[in-house]
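#struct-queue
[09:14] JT: dropping the first one here, sequence first, then the structure tokens:
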Amino acid sequence: MRARPTAAGRAGDRASAPASVAPLRLLAVAAAAAAVCAAPAPARAALTENLTTSVTAMALGNAVTADPPGIDSIHFNPAGLARLTGDSESFHAFGASIRSASSFHAPPGFDVGGWTNDPTSGQSGGPVRQGMYVPAYGKPGWRLPGVIIPGIGMSWNKAGSPFTFATQSYMSQAMSLDRTTDINDPAQFGGRQVQLQRLVYVAPSVGYKYSDTLRFGVSVPIAHSAFVVDTNMRFPNELLGVFGKLQQGWCPEDGGNIIDTFGFGVCGGGKDGMVSPFKKAAHMRLEMTAPFDPTINLGVLWEPRPWFALGAVYQGGSKTSYSGTYVFDTEPMLRNFVQGLNASLLGPIAGAVLGFPSSIPAQQKGNLSATIPFPSHLQVGVKLKPIKYVQLNVDASYAKWGEWKELSFQFDQSVKLLEVARLYGIPNSSKLTIPRGYKSVVNFAFGLQLFPTEKLTLRMGYEPRKSSIPANKIDLIAPLPDTKLYGLGLNYKLSPHSDISISGSYMVGKFNVPANTDCNLNCNTFLNVIYNPYAGQDVSGDIRVRYMGVNFTHRF
């Protein structure tokens, strides 16, 4: 039988426009708004880091860099692996439930180009559920009240060797929202389904014991990343409102008139082609994966005294290359309007000059790719154990989400909705670059451990998490405000060679976005090309995440 773990090793388990111009700008706004919906990948921002990675870290508010938790050191500080002796195996499982509420309110004087009755005003978002993305299969149609995330880790150390080798599978990031239960949910225009996850399926790692007080480590997590966004779309803005009112005053209810036919075909789309800023205009689904995406973690751990330790970890980033499929389904409002425009005398001439499509198909689908940065992350921590029965951990972390200034998406063909965006200086309708404007932030975390007996350890954690998404960039696809995470847990030694950890945590954050303050959500401007499905409204909401986790470790 291998040597028993050291004490340190045991502790580490833990205005109106002319009719000839308005139709063209109308389509441009719609196209640009549809394309912007392709940019919600930042829902993976600061909120999702380190949430389903370690049962011990979850209980301690992720303040574990100076006291890395056993095999979980692979992620949090691989230098901690060098504290493990002998061989060991670890099994963990997490249960997670995510809920996100939203409500919409029209402030006094609400007006979108002459329209004053938005059907989403005074409404609240419906029930939210979760889903999963299964590598090599895709996203099943399940809607779950929560999800279970399993994982396994193993470590090997030969007696007397300064090297400890290990590997582990774990979920390093995850975000899942499903609003498909209620077909009339007003939040459907901000994302019906969102599934963003990064699953590390293998992580070859090594820890090196340089001396009794200094250790180093390196790991290479190899991850499968998935990105799914499914949303209904509408485009409320001043131009659409003004043009819709123009149609109401000019067009007969049963279709066009002879004067219009010899003009620009404003009425040629009939009743279904009448524009409203509050109608559903299209539906979009993007599904992309990156099956093989390696990064590197570098760690150092200095423990000069039993009561004091310092740790640091650098988690490298990558330029993650995604590929997948897209589907755009366009509602009759836009399709019939374009058809009427091109059935008139002058409409096709104006459209040809500006390079607009002659028609918009009911459905357009194909393949797409995107290179989305996975930002690097630096975390440092200190461990203080002033007395035998009490230990305090404090960590500070910095993630470079400021790299997400813009995102580019490449389609395999010219997307008809994007062709009209040439009016706004986008020459290539098969590629779109979207500004994001996210920021890098510093976060702190605090963990407290109590040791009432030799076998029992009690854990508490607190992490006030600053979001990388500024208040004027938040939306319902990424409803990630500043949050607070509270954790509780315990570890119990079942025998000299095995122990079990149980943890639970609760995270909550609220947001309140006054009208016309967030141009990813509710700006109401005349030429609004950024997606604002709740233009002119006050939008508020929250996000609440509940986690439970259990981990069993056995040493040989």
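[09:21] JT: and here's the second one, same format:
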Amino acid sequence: MIRLFQRMAGLPAAARGALSLMAGVLVAIGLPPLGWWPLAFIGFPLFLVLLETAGRVNWRSGFGLGWAFGLGYFAVAFHWIGFAFFVDAETYLWMMPFMLGILSGGMAIYWGLAALLAKRWGGTVLQLALTFAACLAVAEWLRGQLFTGFPWAAPGLLVDGMGGLAQAASVIGMTGLTLLVVLWASLPYVFLAAERRGAKRAGVAILLLLPAIWGWGEMRLRGATDAMVPNVAIRIVQPNLPQEEKWREDNARQIFDDLEQMSSVPTPEQPLGIGGITHVFWPESAVPFLIDESPVAKAELKPLLGGRTALITGAVRVDRKGDGQEPDAHNSIIVFDGNAETVAHYDKWRLVPGGEFLPLAWLLEPLGFRQVVETPGSFVPGPGPRTVTLPGGLRAGLTVCYEAIFPQQLVDPANRPQVIVNVTNDGWFGRSTGPWQHLAQARLRAIEQGLPLVRAANTGISVVIDAYGRTLRMLPLMEKGVVDSSLPVALPPTLYGRVGDVWLIFLVVVALGCAFLVGKSRLSR
């Protein structure tokens, strides 16, 4: 190993950067839907070898290697975003390399800073592994908070393919899992590089946490309840409407007719069709018109809903202003009762940068950049998470699209819901990895909060997930159809649901404290 380190130390800076970028690519391939998480046990050790053999900490060694590592990771993890620019290629395709480059490179800055701090504080082999895991977890938390936040594809998402290990999200959340996954994946570096037995024994002790937590998760799943909420029968409608057809006004009549027909169709689970359904869910921006302002739509919905079935649909909603003033548009969820009367609405409050608003518009608009989603006015964020009581008394935490990727402030803790509802339109991204990653992150939210999740997606993947993250019903990507299901019961509030990321602080302190003690006792080389 010493010879390998010496060779890496002698490589030109460009070669070291390329290897670091490749290490990031390996880790990203482990994300859903492939789920090749063992590759992380190659990617992280390779990066740490490069980081350790770098020269004295400076922006070219520590930060530069970390930034290249992050760039490889995010370039692969975010590549699906490029599919959106092909929907209207004549208008938007030229923007794709700039947007993807800026996004991947910007997110990689967090990893560069984590590597810089780890290089400065890490010192020895075991110290470097502990310090980098702690610093990267903090960097990932900040990535989900700063500048509106974008925590997509955190390394903790690797647990989606690791069975019972994902249950730890109910205690430490996704960012806590990020720290543990990074630390575990770094241990081959400790075993191969550490010269002292004490460091290797400490690495074994850390590694033993992996099967222990995994086993606890499997036991939690074996004891899971299959209870359902009484008197609730749901239907999710997945129209599978191509994105290029979705906003054409001449398609409005056909789109609405299809949604109505699918909502009422008999199925083996519901031979009476909508007559046996209490709640119907349509996906994000289900129709290309303002459904809550359409007398025709309400008149047609009333006999469909029959006074008994509630409709929960994604829709664009507009707040009118005075004469001559541009209206405020909201990406919303509108709730209709059985008489097709609007009884509640929820306005999305986490807007998609570049999609629903353009960051630094004052700079980018003169250069020709535009937000991808065009609306009757400017999208305006709502006030934040809140629980809406649906007809029938069901309390729902409503979320729109990528709000489901945020572990923090997902539901109103003062009025805990019985279910998380997520309406989305992943039709922008075709058959890419994006919809699968989106689903995996939503599944973690269910585990974190101990709440079932109902997900209505335009082109898929529509699912019913229970409070343990188990998928009970699913309609695959790019299929047209409905999902009929009972609603799983909620669990008591999880530890993560009660205290949030306080556990992350604890884990970071423990990791850095252990790194300090390791340095004091000189367990590492």
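[09:30] RK: nice, looked through the second one.
[09:31] RK: The mean pLDDT is 88.
[09:31] JT: good to know. The two ends are 13 Å apart (CA to CA).
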